[in-house]
Amino acid sequence: MLPHDNLEEFQDPANYDLEEIPGAGARIAFYAALARQVGDPVLEIACGNGIVAIPIAQTGLAVTGVDLARPMLAHGRGKAERLRLAVEWVEGDARQLDLGRRFRFVYITGNAFQALQTRVDQSAFLSTVLRHLAEDGVFAFETRNPAGHDLSDQPDETFWFRYVGVEGHAIEVSGTQAFDPAAQVLHWTTYRRWRDAAGPHVRTTRIACRFTNVADLDVLLREHGFEVTQRFGGFEGEAFAPDSPSIVSICRRLEPGL
Prior knowledge:
By secondary structure, this protein is α/β, with parallel strands linked by helices. The chain has helices at 13-20, 25-38, 53-58, 70-82, 119-132, 214-223, and strands at residues 42-45, 63-67, 88-91, 103-108, 133-144, 154-164, 170-180, 185-196, 199-210, 226-232, 246-253.
């Protein structure tokens, strides 16, 4: 068991926007284009504070976002209200969710699929997706490709990036990582350091992500009633290669008998 709830990274949604949105342009464009192509209603699982859900809603599509992190949902709701967008925000666990209706487009992004720590969790999640996916619907998601990432233990703290936070302070972000090969889980510890009139501060957060290789992923998807119709190595149409950084999958329901 993890000595934390895997939600520590998601308790400061305003600064989360500042950290994540600058690098999210291609990802937002990818899922927004898919949503326009497939049509609504749209369901984002692990929607966070709406980094992708809100731009999709801005295109006029009906969007429902589900997440476990209450602060992220509250922040997303506030952003949507300021933009006068009627996004539906639901607090819920993706492994147990049952909204009682189906959606033409279901997706999970931000590598949130990797928060599913075990095969049991992954199976429960995919059952949720199938339960909510329309018969002619599309399910899309991405996950980091283990063959495209350095999964070595890195116990020495390494500087990652810096930015100016919502309070106007320069925040330096650094971290360490440790990989559990048996569980296929990488544990990151992140340190955010800043200084203000009261002196220096540090906020420490931990998150663990499961790395699933493409072969195991395809078996898992097929076992739960999905077929992959398209696959990319990134969000700009890159062909998937063994060492691609991402496994981006677009899926439909598996036809009966296949």
